[in-house]
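Case study.
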Amino acid sequence: MMPALETQPGDPLMDSPERAELRRMIRQLIEEISPAEHTSVLDESETFDAQLYSKLAELGLLGIDAPEEFGGGGDVRDQLVLIEELAKGPTSMAAFMISQFAVVQVLASFGRTAQAREVLAALVAGRTRVSFALSEPDGGTDVARVMKTRARRVDSGGFVLHGQKTWISGAAEADWLVVLARSSEIERSPVEGITMFLVPTNLPGIEIRAIDTLGIHSLSTCDVFLDDVEVPEETILGDLDRGMRQVFATVNREGLNAAAATLGVGLGALELAIEHTKERFVFGKPVASFQVPQHWMVDAAVQLEAARSLMGRAAEIEVAGGNADSLASMAKLIASEAAVEISLKGMQLMGGAGYTRASAMQRLFRDGRLWSFSPLNNEMVRNRLGEGWLGLPRSY
Ligand SMILES: Cc1cc2nc3c(=O)[nH]c(=O)nc-3n(C[C@H](O)[C@H](O)[C@H](O)COP(=O)(O)OP(=O)(O)OC[C@H]3O[C@@H](n4cnc5c(N)ncnc54)[C@H](O)[C@@H]3O)c2cc1C
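After joint prediction, the assembly is written out as follows.
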């Protein structure tokens, strides 16, 4: 990493020796277990990095911010450091961790049954995997309004789930799904009347099929079909009909974690661009000595520093118990747009070398593209900032 792109003592995300040590440890782990060539092989073969996952479990990093009784520890700042470092190299694992932390948070907050608590402990220990199934074919952005998956009460006291979820990260390898389904038709507001269930993936009626995506190839993205899947009432997480409201806090944290992922992608791409353009000679001079490439790279570094500052500030406010939603949204906005732009320009700066699948630049572009529209698309992020931060009339 170029010294100028490193965190500095005094940075919000470097303010403790423990966090500096965490960053160093993750870097070392990636160097040892998932260096660039290995990540590229897994990306080509669309394989999950099981060895890296086991090591993250061993180090207790799968449960950052979970309650200590479940083997958790640390807080959002540690999550951000982990995700940023992963995203620079094995980006799919950063995507996996965003989903992992979301389900950990959901289970820690709303898992009241013995089974939910067992699943949480196993999830943190790396003994089970849980996917978060909210999006549907008719829409991800306004999913509550268009949700077709139904939870119908049956005589046994349980529910029958019927519908389809789509784009579900890691579902092909998951043992459990957190499923959001409409449980009552409440006219007042679409976010009411939706319930969250913790469902084993091996129940009759569940079918999971992989989707061929542009990037994040080392983590499956799946369609999940629920064909009259019967579940007992105890599978409800939190309160009946309150599932969507319960999920909102998770979505906000996902946004901040997505900022860390895209910051990592942007830093990884910029580092590659700097390395390549210093070494590659054109007209007898390094590409990096021309003014246009330099300006691109300087602008990239400035954007990333701005994103890092916003992200750090949002994290500190969140840890202090404040509301960091707007700052977290801004961090995600800047970082995700920077990541796409930097990796795209990075490919240009590398010429033909940026067009080969052997180069990590094209993978960073494909992987980083995800967070421009997920977990919330940047147009909606702007809409929400307009309304919530500037007090403008609702635009959607
Ligand atoms: C690789 C991958 C992994 C994913 N993992 C998960 C997961 O684990 N669980 C899960 O539940 N979901 C997951 N998703 C789904 C993701 O959250 C959705 O793709 C996202 O919410 C956008 O929804 P959509 O794709 O239906 O886009 P749409 O809702 O169809 O929106 C399309 C576009 O319309 C525009 N738009 C929408 N609303 C507005 C507006 N009000 N104003 C202006 N423009 C607007 C935006 O440009 C937006 O990108 C994943 C998606 C992918 C691709």
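Observations recorded in class. Residues 130-242 form a domain with the Butyryl-CoA Dehydrogenase, subunit A; domain 2 fold (CATH 2.40.110.10). The CA atoms of residues 35 and 202 lie 34 Å apart. We will return to this complex in the next lecture.
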